[in-house]
Design goal:
CATH class of the largest domain: Alpha Beta
Number of domains: 3
CATH superfamily of the largest domain: ATPase, nucleotide binding domain
Bound molecules: zinc ion
Strand content: 15-25%
Number of strands: 16
Distance between the termini: 25 Å
Structural class: alpha/beta
CATH architecture of the largest domain: 2-Layer Sandwich
Shape: globular
Radius of gyration: 25 Å
Strand order of the largest sheet: 6-5-4-7-11
CATH topology of the largest domain: Nucleotidyltransferase, domain 5
Largest sheet: 5 strands, mixed
Order of helices and strands: HEHHEEEEEHEEEEHEHEEEHHHHHEHHEH
Length: about 400
């Protein structure tokens, strides 16, 4: 028993040191062995052994030389080799599934989009994804991990607890796909994987406290603190109550932020007004085009001066602003990065939201606050999933390498 423990401890130490060196190379590349020793605090002989192991695994490569202050002569530079392994990244949206084969750095090798019926049963969708993964695996070798990003709450050992946009509850995607393919599968909330992409591409050293607000299907907030994702912020901001007697949300509560300020909320409200004979300009557009209601046509009606449509958009912006003010007062961030696709195509909603937030938030906190609007495309979202998988593969809890 004691011997087993001792062996276990040696293996664990070996893994910890290997991860230290590998992380150092990924962050500081290209970097020479003497500098790695200095940064990690490991002995030069340990660095030599570990780097030799990583070179054999093809996870790092040698690229030229540098004058090393540490040893007083030329030293070989080492670089991370993202093409050593491949990753399958999957992003599940309400009516689309996007899949990509990438390298460990998120570089896309192949990408595919498939449409799903919004009303399809969960097992039908999972089997569809399983088939697509099978196709990719048939054509590619060296796939080290599969990442799945989905809007919803992921907890309990990566079990998807709830997803309003997919109408899923308690689904174990990880178990299902690991049993199917015998490859490590990692499941994450898709706001977090998008945030990871944004974080890796954002470098303002002076900003230590940033909020990433993902305003797409659901609403998610991620806090970047000291240039890392703050793992302590794991709540569901989209399901905070914003209107006491608002519409019923999938989570069981009423008047959640997510249900009060979304594309669906705007469309539903305009539809109700149309039934009551209001929104005449919008009605005219729909009749002229002989089509059904959509967010794009609602925005057209707004541009043409439909005052009732304008009220609906204004209210949506105000609720978003209340949400922003709550974020500001809770986190006192230096920057709020808002990722929004369809909803934020309305500059009117965005402008109203910022005005409302600035009216309500603590004045002192507004002084150094910057807002920024971004639109993370699907390719970038998939790259974010790959980066998440790469982090997990080279994590203490990940497989041995
Ligand atoms: Zn809710």
């Amino acid at each position: 028993m004691k011997i087993d423990n001792a062996v276990g401890n040696v293996q664990l130490m070996q893994k910890i040191n290997r991860l230290k060196v590998f992380d150092c190379i990924r962050q500081k590349e290209p970097v020479a062995r003497p500098e790695i020793a200095k940064i990690t605090g490991l002995s030069p002989s340990s660095i030599t052994n570990i780097v030799t192991h990583l070179l054999e695994k093809n996870l790092v490569v040698e690229v030229g030389t540098v004058d090393s202050k540490e040893v007083g002569r030329k030293a070989t530079l080492i670089k991370f080799n993202p093409s050593a392994m491949k990753v399958i990244s999957i992003d599940i949206e309400s009516s689309n599934i996007n899949l990509a084969l990438t390298d460990l750095g998120g570089e896309i090798i192949k990408i595919k989009e498939i449409s799903i019926n919004r009303l399809a049963r969960d097992f039908e969708i999972m089997n569809l994804i399983k088939r697509e993964i099978g196709f990719i695996l048939n054509e590619s070798n060296n796939v080290a991990g599969i990442g799945i990003a989905v809007s919803g709450l992921v907890q309990d050992g990566e079990k998807l607890v709830i997803s309003s946009s997919m109408r899923w509850k308690g689904l174990s995607l990880k178990q299902f796909f690991e049993n199917s393919f015998n490859i490590p599968v990692f499941v994450q909330n898709n706001s977090r994987t998008k945030a990871l992409w944004e974080l890796r591409n954002y470098n303002n050293e002076d900003e230590r406290n940033i909020i990433f607000l993902d305003l797409t299907l659901g609403i998610g907030i991620i806090n970047f603190f000291d240039h890392k994702i703050n793992e302590a912020v794991i709540g569901e901001f989209g399901h905070t109550t914003i209107k006491k007697d608002g519409p019923l949300c999938f989570c069981g509560n009423r008047g959640c932020l997510e249900i009060m300020c979304s594309v669906d909320a705007v469309v539903n409200q305009c539809n109700e007004l149309l039934q009551k004979g209001k929104c005449k300009t919008l009605e005219g557009i729909l009749n002229e085009k002989n089509t059904s209601i959509s967010f794009e046509l609602i925005l057209q009606a707004y541009e043409k001066g439909d005052s009732e449509v304008s009220e609906v958009l204004k209210e949506c912006g105000e609720y978003l602003g209340i949400g922003l003010a709550n974020i500001i007062n809770m986190f006192n961030p230096q920057r709020i990065i808002i990722n929004g696709d369809l909803l934020l195509t309305s500059d009117f909603i965005y402008k109203t939201a910022l005005e409302e937030a600035n009216k309500r938030a603590y004045e002192l906190f507004l002084k150094n606050l910057r807002y920024e609007k971004v639109n993370i495309k699907i390719e970038e979202a998939l790259k974010g999933v790959s980066l998440f998988v790469a982090d997990k593969l080279f994590d203490l809890s990940g497989p041995d390498f």
